[in-house]
Amino acid sequence: MTTLPAARRRSPLGAAIGLSLEADRRATLITFVTFGLRPTVLVLVFYLVKVIVDAAAAHDTGALAAGVAGIALASALAVGSVTYSIEQSVRMIEGTAAVVDRRLMTLIGRLPGVAHLDDPGVRDQIEVLRQERVHLSEGGDAFSLVLGATVRAAVTGVILAMIQPVLLLLPLLAVPPLLATRRAQRHRDEAVGRAAGAARLARHLLAVGASPAAAKELRLFGLGPHLRARHAEAAGAADREVTRTVWRNLIATSAASALFALGYCAALMFVLYRFTRGQVSLGDVILTLGLVTSVSTQLNQGVQFFGFLQQALAASRRLLRLEEYADRAAHGAGEGVPAERLTDGIRLEAVEFRYPGSDSRALGDVDLVLPAGSVVAVVGANGAGKSTLIKLLAGLYRPTSGRITVEGTDLASVDADLWHRRTSACFQDFSRLEFSVRHSVGAGSPALAEDDAHVTRAVEQGGAAGLVAGLPGGLAAHLGRSYDDGVDLSGGEWQRIALARARMRPAPCLLVLDEPTAAIDPLAEDALLTAYVRAARQTVARSNGITLFASHRLSTARLADLIVVVDQGRIAQLGVHEDLMAQDDGIYRDLYERQSRAYA
Ligand SMILES: Nc1ncnc2c1ncn2[C@@H]1O[C@H](COP(=O)(O)OP(=O)(O)OP(=O)(O)O)[C@@H](O)[C@H]1O
Predict the structure, then answer these.
(1) Which of 65, 93, 504, 565 could cysteine-pair with 573, CB 3.0–4.6 Å?
(2) Looking at the structure, do residues 480 and 589 belong to the same domain, yes or no?
(3) Sheet harboring 409-410: ordered strands across?
(4) Is residue 315 located within the same domain as residue 356?
């Protein structure tokens, strides 16, 4: 499990503000100016009250009138700007939320392959960041509130110093509560990180327990109470970890606030004492009372705003840490350009692979040549390593040792994105992309998604022509329940869409199909796979590419130029159907004969 080091290159505050500026520069600047200055208006009003009281005592009508006019103007400005500034801040927050979502998608997209996403340490950080998105999107808002509180505190300080410099000690007493809050936030952040594993389990259990797809099995097997008990246990463990820290934090912040309350009482007594001795005016007493009283409100607000900002900064730090991790991972990836056309083929040399965090070998001692232009079938029992081999060839994982070469170039030295563009795939756990048919199929080659003739050809080759013809709107029909007018498909129908998607690339060097017809009924399966592989053979012929498919139905393996039999992570046999059938004690012949009897 990877522990991500602290981000070093950028400041979390700068990054949080940068997100808001990127979202809406104008709204952000207006929010900073209005939220930054408005709180100070109240301090000016206190000052103008002092001017009015002292002018009244001195019968100075000019100063009196100026004071009243000043109060009217300041109040009008403050009230008039409220609605506008709140509107701008809402715009900024909403825009920032969208930018944060895109940054999160970008950083996940930058992680090469899928090995990083298998790492529980990385997954936990991504999960916590997903939860903290809301704090990050409010980062600019929190900053403007802290800015407003700081400007107001500075102006208050200047005025208090003019009345009596010793009163400046009062804002200083605000420092311990602020430091305590900052420390509390850090402890809370650490506790959330420690609780991430338990919280992730609780979310998974909730997702299963509340999923319509899992409802059938949950009811049938009576799993509801078991799931609820495990959820209570996991959520309780996560909650206890955070609650312990919250209580410890509360004690520390309360002690710091009590210190400030004592100082506040002492300041009031001191000014009243000086007034009884005629050392300050009545206006000064009223001004001090107003300011000192508001210092306590300001402090509470300031601490609260500072807490918001700390939450945003914690999320910003996590985002930066993950982005630097993704940068390092992307930097370590290859940059070479893979061949566009094969003449030799793909070779696996002494390849061994262990999944991240796993001690056992999923593949070992694999030496294999996949000739250019060939159709290869990979067969073997459950867990033999077929999907693992396919994922390595597709560049989603790198071998733990050994190497895979394409036209003699190590795949590890090649830009993974470029290699992905030279490949196409239909995975065993294919995605049900809930878009229109055009875009769900077209996702296989986004540049060609609007080419209806091309998409229609892919749909036909995926065996989905009849299905799409029956949908309202044809290619325009929305798939899935995400839309009001969306149509949901059966498992086999979704698989036909995934098969069509895999046919979108015009000339892939490698087309991998992992159990591509597993959800399709056995009568249609053979015919569909045979037609599909024949058509694929023609498509990949443009690049002299390789079509490789894994299938449990050995009758389909007869289509292949080369059959690779995998057993317990090793290549057990290699050859064409006839040769493998001729080997008396081979796994292939045994499997083939048993299947033929079962299907007969
Ligand atoms: N993400 C993973 N993390 C850890 N181990 C894994 C992971 N995926 C697969 N394995 C393990 O690797 C081994 C090979 O799995 P693989 O999925 O390649 O088998 P397969 O031949 O495709 O099986 P099936 O026919 O059931 O699809 C198995 O022991 C499996 O438990």
Answers:
(1) 565
(2) no
(3) 363-371, 345-353, 401-406, 409-410
(4) no
